[in-house]
Specification:
The chain has 669 residues and is an alpha+beta fold. It has 4 domains: 3-34 and 69-139, Rossmann fold (3-Layer(aba) Sandwich), CATH 3.40.50.140; 149-175 and 474-574, Orthogonal Bundle (Topoisomerase I, domain 2), CATH 1.10.460.10; 200-274 and 402-466, Topoisomerase I, domain 3 (Distorted Sandwich), CATH 2.70.20; 284-394, Topoisomerase I, domain 4 (Orthogonal Bundle), CATH 1.10.290. Helices cover 36% and strands 17% of the residues. The protein has 19 helices and 21 strands. Strands 8, 9, 10, 11, 12, 13, 14 and 15 form an 8-stranded antiparallel β-sheet that branches. A 5-stranded mixed β-sheet has the order 2-1-5-6-7, sandwiched between helices. Strand 8 (200-208) and strand 9 (213-220) form a beta hairpin. The termini are far apart. The chain binds one DNA strand of 25 nucleotides through helix 3, helix 5 and helix 14.
DNA sequence: CAGTGAGCGAGCTTCCGCTTGACTT
């Protein structure tokens, strides 16, 4: 009789099968095999009439979940059942994390396993697999309970809050613990930009000495010159600093040009920088975004192909750790390419930065006891670029520190103080293999210089600068922000972004994530009606609860009762069903609200549907007035909620109008 | 009389996390 070993991924199954050899059959579940019904038609007939059928969770009876086999998984389950019948023994070898334990339990249920045998391994080497097979354990039902609690909570909160949005804003909208927290981050940043008032200041620099270097004026008559950090987001300046007029700046330049500079002090401090850790899913997405200009989705698609081709380890991971074998391979690769001294004596080890990490997998790295160099892989195109990035990052992670000296020079021209900073690299260390970003081009190497010296001022100039608005998130930087807060998982980072886009909450402009009016309105509504969902702390609290469930200090029922029955449910019940409105400081006299499911501009007793491609930042007061005056207003005749619309406007028929709402009208509840 | 349009009511939408490959565009 053979032993059936069940894993999640088919690639993993092939590899393990090769290591286990005869007597073992290894099959893949392709992820979860059962789930709560997504919609009513997935609910079996005998439960369809139940009041909880829409949720798939019988809240009144201990939050009992109803599990069904999704259509897409029917074939897999059938095959696994047949394989299990033929096998003498079944070992559940799904991933060693919370969801993996849950999948193992579902499989045990579906296959009717009496005493389910569980094995877990964290690296795929012959040794690790043999060890794991020899040391199976029973299922961890507490961990399974934690996973189920997570699932039920996400269902109840998501399916509880989304209908509020249908009533208040429009049909088909969605809210959830992860997507709404992500959207709130974007909305917060967008509001910061909308409220931001830029301020101008002067930066005065001089070219000094031979060879020349650049120094910037820091003080005049002992008073500090305004720099960006002296300004508030409303454009006000810290009263203690000097904000020069153009005339003053010009005078200062003329003053500098006429006199030599005295070196007051030279401070040199050595520095060293450690290499970045091997890639996790989020850091890979971040680096591929910056260096290869890939969107997270593209990165994951290419990485999936590299994984299936056997070039890299699993690409959905939160662990930056390398196995001993991989550590040795990385060190060997570094030494082969950069010399025996390119690695420190002791291997480096890496641990995850976030406490929510589950660490079921290794870091993303080249496979094998000896890494194939990018040239040896025979890969081409984007796949080759991504492999190269992963290869270099992995090798660099075992190399020596970058070392150098930072020098800070203070100079004086009369009562004007200038500062110059420079950086000299004494040992490039790991940067020979990998660098996160291009080195700063402004970075200068200062010539040898001593306190007390006098140097000629060769030139001076003043440059008008403005304070920068808070930067928008890129897709990858949003993922990084979410991961830091413990929101979302490696397997979902890319899909969170696509959910936000599909709902019309965000668009991507020049590789930046931009929130739409709809996204702002949804966040505004949720902030009042479901504040937990826009708060990353909600996930943090949930994770803490789940850990306690896994450790047996909290029951599933206590957690769900406390979170749902005593908190979320009453909040949702009390939630207002009327549409949110946004008042914007730079748009006095107008308000953005909702009419017929569409973001709409209200003002002056008139209204206008906002064109869907008009982003919040692009709505100027002039444009708002033009829209309200009826220009480019899609005047599709539809019942108006309460705003009084001039009859003529409502009857203006639009032909071939570009902004026809795609969603059907729904009556207000 | 036929065609059109307004109005009504019923039914639907939705979560997160795990995995590929089958679909379009």
């Amino acid at each position: 009789m053979t032993t059936l070993v069940l894993v999640e991924s088919p690639s993993k199954a092939r590899k393990i099968a090769a290591y286990l050899g005869q007597g073992y059959q290894v099959r893949a579940s392709l992820g979860h095999v059962r789930d709560l019904p997504a919609k009513k038609e997935d609910v079996p007939a005998r439960y369809a009439k139940e009041p909880w059928a829409r949720l798939g969770v019988d809240v009144a009876h201990g939050f009992r979940p109803l599990y069904v086999i999704p259509k897409a998984k029917a074939g897999v389950v059938k095959e696994l059942r047949q394989a299990a019948e033929r096998a003498g023994r079944v070992i559940l070898a799904t991933d060693g994390d919370r969801e993996g334990e849950s999948i193992a339990w579902h499989l045990a249920q579906l296959l009717g396993l009496k005493d389910p045998e569980r094995m877990v391994f964290h690296e795929i080497t012959p040794d690790a697999i043999r060890q794991a097979v020899a040391h199976t354990r029973p299922l961890d039902y507490r961990l399974v309970g934690a996973a189920e609690t997570r699932r039920v909570l996400d269902r109840l909160s998501g399916y509880g809050a989304s209908p509020l949005l249908w009533d208040a804003i429009g049909p088909g909208l969605s809210a959830g613990r992860v997507q709404s927290a992500a959207l709130a981050l974007l909305a917060q940043r967008e509001h910061a930009r909308l409220n931001f008032v830029a301020a101008a200041f002067w930066r005065v620099t001089a070219r000094i000495g031979q060879p020349t270097f650049t120094a910037a004026v820091t003080h005049v008559n002992g008073q500090a010159l305004a720099t960006p950090k002296d300004f508030g987001p409303d454009g006000t300046v810290n009263p203690g600093v000097l904000l020069m007029t153009p005339e003053q700046a010009e005078k200062l330049v003329a003053f500098l040009k006429a006199r030599p500079a005295a070196v007051q002090s030279v401070e040199a401090t050595p520095f060293s920088t450690r290499p970045p850790a091997p890639f996790t899913t989020s850091t890979l997405q971040q680096a591929a975004s910056i260096q290869l200009k890939l969107a997270p989705k593209q990165t994951m698609d290419e990485a999936q192909r590299l994984y299936e081709g056997g070039f890299i380890t699993y690409m959905r991971t939160d662990s930056p750790g390398l196995s001993d074998e991989a550590t040795r391979a990385a060190r060997a690769a570094a030494q082969a390419a950069h010399g025996p001294d390119s690695v420190p004596e002791r291997p480096r080890t890496y641990a995850p930065k976030t406490s929510t990490a589950q660490e079921a997998h290794e870091a993303i790295r080249p496979t094998g006891r000896a890494f194939r160099t990018p040239a040896e892989t025979g890969l081409a195109g984007t796949q080759a670029d991504l492999y190269d990035l992963i290869y270099r990052r992995t090798v660099a992670s075992q190399m020596t520190d970058l070392r150098g000296t930072r020098t800070q020079v203070t100079l004086a021209v009369g009562r004007v103080t200038l500062g110059a900073s420079g950086r000299v690299i004494t040992d490039p260390g790991f940067t020979r293999a990998y660098q996160d970003e291009e080195p700063d081009p402004d970075e200068q190497a200062l010539p040898p210089i001593q306190a007390g010296e006098m140097h000629d001022v060769r030139d001076a100039s003043a440059e008008r600068r403005t304070t920068p608005a808070p930067r928008r998130y890129s897709e990858a930087s949003l993922v990084r922000a979410l991961e830091r807060q413990g929101v979302g998982r490696p397997s979902t980072f890319a899909s969170i972004l696509s959910t936000l886009a599909t709902r019309g909450y965000t668009t991507v402009r020049q590789r930046q994530l931009v929130v739409t009016w709809l996204g702002l309105l949804v966040t505004q509504y949720l902030g009042r009606s479901a504040p937990d969902l826009v708060d990353p702390a909600f996930t943090a609290k949930m994770e803490a609860d789940l850990d306690r469930i896994a450790e047996g200090q909290l029951t599933r029922l206590e957690c769900l009762t406390g979170t749902w029955t005593d908190s979320l449910d009453p909040t949702f019940r009390r939630a207002p069903r009327d549409a949110p409105t946004l008042a914007l400081p730079k748009l006095p006299g107008v308000v953005v609200g909702v009419r017929g499911g569409q973001p709409t501009l209200f003002g002056d007793g008139r209204l206008a549907t906002l064109p869907p491609d008009l982003l919040p930042e692009d709505l100027t007061p002039e444009l708002a007035q033009a829209l309200l005056a009826g220009e480019r207003v899609p005047a599709r005749s539809r019942r108006t909620p309460k705003a009084d619309v001039p009859k003529g406007k409502r009857q203006r028929k639009a032909r071939g109008e570009p902004h026809t709402p795609r969603t059907p009208r729904r009556s207000k509840g």
